[in-house]
Amino acid sequence: MVQKLVYRYSRAFQQQVVEDVEEGRFHSINQAKEHYGIRGDGTIQRWLNRYGRNRICPKVVRVEKPNEQDQIRQLKKHIRQLEHALGRTQADKVLNEAFLELACEELGQDVEAFKKKVDIEASIRPKKDPEKA
Q1: What is the structure's pLDDT at 96?
Q2: Which of 38, 86, 88, 112 is the most buried (most CB within 10 A)?
């Protein structure tokens, strides 16, 4: 009969490994496992669950006043409205570019040349002062 070897690690050793992993000395749990010669696949993960800092407060609890909940709801609604408006603006831009391409094709002009021509003409024209208008 073949005897199976069972490895027992001291609590101090376990806590040292957990501390090294949490401080970022190793890039992964597997790297720590190889460094210390630990054979079990889930051993270090169990130690992290048992002794790690994350076990102390695994959840974030947020306490809010009722008016804060309303503010968050309003801000989320505002974000949705802005995203919708941005989507419409982008769709309008795509349509305008498509219309420009069609118009230039009808006129037999290159789109880039037309854009340069318009930019030059806009820079030559004097800008209107809104106070004088």
Answers
A1: 92
A2: 38
